[in-house]
Amino acid sequence: MSKNFVITIARGFGSGGKEIAHSVAKALGVKCYEHSILTLASHLSGVDRSVFAEADEKLLKPSFIHTIKESLSPYPESHFVSNDELFAYEAQIIKGLAASESCVIVGKAADFVLQDFENVFSFYIEAPRDFCLNNVMRKMDVTEEEAHKLIAETDKYRAEFYKYVTGGNYWTNPVNYDMTLNSAKVGKENCVKLIADYVGMMMEGK
Question: Which domains does the chain have, with CATH numbers?
């Protein structure tokens, strides 16, 4: 594969999508970007990374506007009034990565941000609730009740974030993605192989 390609991974909380994304990147010999996008956006904008982290995948709230204004006090030339501008910096980073290297990008509505780019392949990873519950309970050492709450709240944030930045599209819309995979049924290793093989097939001869 001589040209750049980008793989975007959207995932339900507890589905193992993040682990699959990192394994795909390793299998293909490219970098995987997730939280590091917040760090890169912070460096680009001069805004503290914690502000991006708080805005990440959350809708605009009055208390959040106040947080932004407070954090921006050392930067008088900035005029942020919402998280729209913060996401614009993240989108700029994502587009810059897509233009300069092959990589895997987790979340951040990257499939939407890169909709006008060539060689972008988008995947959605989900799994039944019981599978996600067990993953969350094991990895985060929480009770079943706490795991239910974490899954519900995190997936709600992700869905609202996607709807907000896309102007009304919905996060789980299969048309947004090249492929939707049930990680519980397919298995992590097979998900990685399917994604890598699909991208290889699509890039063949390009």
Answer: 6-201 (3.40.50.300)
Q: How far is the C-alpha of 120 from the C-alpha of 28, rounded, in Å?
A: 15
pLDDT tens, residue by residue, 87-114? 788 888 899 999 999 999 999 899 999 9
68-71: long-range contacts at Cβ-Cβ below 8 A with a sequence spacing of 24 or more? 71/47
Residue 132 in contact with residue 9, Cβ under 8 Å?
Answer: no
pLDDT digits (tens, 9 = 90+) for 39-81: 666 656 556 666 555 656 454 344 433 443 344 333 333 433 3
Q: Quick one: tokens of 110?
A: 């990257």
Say how far apart CA 158 and CA 9 lie, in whole Å: 13
CA 57 to each of CA 13, 53, 111: distance values in angstroms, whole numbers, following the listed order: 13, 9, 15
